[in-house]
Amino acid sequence: MSGNERKSEVQHIGSDRQLSSPLPWYRRHWILWSSMLAILIVVVVLMIHDNDAKTAAAKRALSAVKPSFTATTATATKGDIGVYLDAIGTVTPVYTSSITAQASGVLTFVHYREGQFVQKGDALIDIDPRPYQAQLMQAEGTLERDTNILAQAQMDLDRYRAAWARNSISKQLLDDQEKIVLQDQGTVKNDQGTVTYDQVQLGYCHITAPIAGRVGLRLVDPGNVVQATGNTVLVVVTQEQPMTVVFTLAEDSLAQVQARMRQMQTLPVEAWDRGQTYKIASGKLQTIDNQIDTTTGTVKLRALFDNKNGALFPNQFVNTRLLANTLEGVTLVPTAAVQHNGQVAFLYVVANNMASVRYIKTGVSDGGKTAVEGINPGEVVATSSFDKLQNGSKVTVSKQTPATNTAEGNSP
User: Fold this and answer.
1) What does residue 139 show for φ and ψ, rounded to 5 degrees?
2) pLDDT at position 327
3) Is the peptide bond prior to 402 cis by the omega test (within 30 degrees of 0)?
4) Longest Cα pair distance anywhere in the chain, in angstroms?
5) Which of 393, 341, 388 is nearest to 362 (CA)?
6) How high is the pLDDT of residue 352?
7) In this structure, which long-range contacts are made by residues 95-98, counting pairs with CB atoms below 8 Å and at least 24 apart in sequence?
8) Could you say which DSSP state residue 166 is in?
9) Which helix (DSSP H) or strand (DSSP E) does residue 57 occupy?
10) Which residue blocks in 249-374 are alpha helix, DSSP H?
11) N or C: less crowded end of the chain, CB within 10 Å?
């Protein structure tokens, strides 16, 4: 074999050995990691697909079986409801007497107790009467003297008339005596006036109750000196039975009230406490003021209450409710059942244990009832669980009446 042939054979053997040698380490690692990443991607895709399938199945199961909520219900009824005009009023006594002194002197006795109920004519305060008794005695003495002088002049006049009838005296003497009698009569009348005045002044020393009512706090004590010309109030007596409440209404409501008064003669009025939590008393409208206040556009009204229990107190602020009209034959539902979504009112009507939204038009409310349109009497409405109910929700009716529910509910 030649040298060239051996050389080519050696080269060929070397190339075969080179091709059959193992791959480098970095190429082997890259292939391994690529394979593992591909397997991981396939596993993740399979898991996601499986979870989506399970979630869809769960949703289908939930949609097929809706949860049931417990709620209380009430039945819509047909009835009457009052239309009331609300206003703020002030309790005003029919009579209030602030007694001042009409005679000057020293207070000797205070008969009343603070807060005492007195009748007309009961003794309240005594002022020292002795100076006025002395003046009255003087006036009575003067009257007695002048009365006797008049009697003497009348006797003389009778004698002169008899003498004149016999032509024993002149006509001038008779005329003079007649005038003297007239003068004495005037003097006696003046004396009688003085006696009467002094009797009145003496009566002012014994102060009595001018009306039946309740006495306020004691303002004076025995030993105080009072003046007839002063403005010091000695005692205040306030009549509490009956009692009135003065309140105001907008002039726009005047025509409605007047028309109702012409029809009903009297209108019921209720007095409620400041927080409108309980009714204090019931009365009737007594009168309407004769003019509208132009500065406020309101008119005053006065309601009369018998106030037998004394619940209305003078100058107390109360909330008044005037029954201006009565709506008859309307559909009534509990006010707690009415829900709002902005300006829209709706109810949850319950039928076959299923709640459905019913949009309504609300009217007046009174005593926990509201007049509505859009629902028929006899239909059942939900009165609780508004934070859970939705259109189509299943409802389990509870027999218990819920506590006050102030939730506005969900938007349907």
Assistant:
1) -65, -40
2) 85
3) no
4) 225
5) 341
6) 84
7) 95/211, 95/213, 95/238, 95/239, 96/236, 96/237, 96/238, 96/239, 96/314, 97/209, 97/210, 97/211, 97/213, 97/236, 97/237, 97/238, 98/233, 98/236
8) T
9) helix 25-64
10) 254-264
11) N
Pairing of strands 233-238, 279-288: unpaired
- Going by C-alpha positions, the residue among 250, 380, 215 that lies closest to residue 322 is 250
Q: Which H helix or E strand runs over 83?
A: strand 77-93
Dist. CA 341–CA 408, nearest whole Å: 8
Q: How far is CA 147 from CA 123, 154, 157, 190, 345, in A?
A: 35, 11, 15, 11, 92
Query: Tell me: the pLDDT tens digits for 282-336?
Result: 999 999 999 999 999 999 999 999 999 989 999 999 999 999 888 888 889 998 8
- At 336, the amino acid letter reads A
Q: What digits encode the pLDDT tens for the residues 94-118? A: 999 999 999 999 999 999 999 999 9
Q: Kindly state the tokens that stand for 321.
A: 């409710």
Tell me what the mean pLDDT of segment 12-31 comes to.
Answer: 53
* Chain mean pLDDT for the chain: 84
Cβ of 407: how many Cβ atoms within 10 Å?
Answer: 11
The span from the CA of 119 to the CA of 321, in Å, is 32
Using alpha carbons, select from 159, 146, 158 the residue that is nearest to residue 185: 146
Distance between CA atoms of residues 193 and 208, nearest Å? 24
CB 272 within 8 A of CB 136: no
241-284 pLDDT, tens digit per residue, is 999 999 999 999 898 899 888 888 789 999 999 888 899 999 99
Query: Comparing 1 with 278, which gets the higher pLDDT?
Result: 278
How far apart CA 102 and CA 205 sit, in angstroms, is: 8
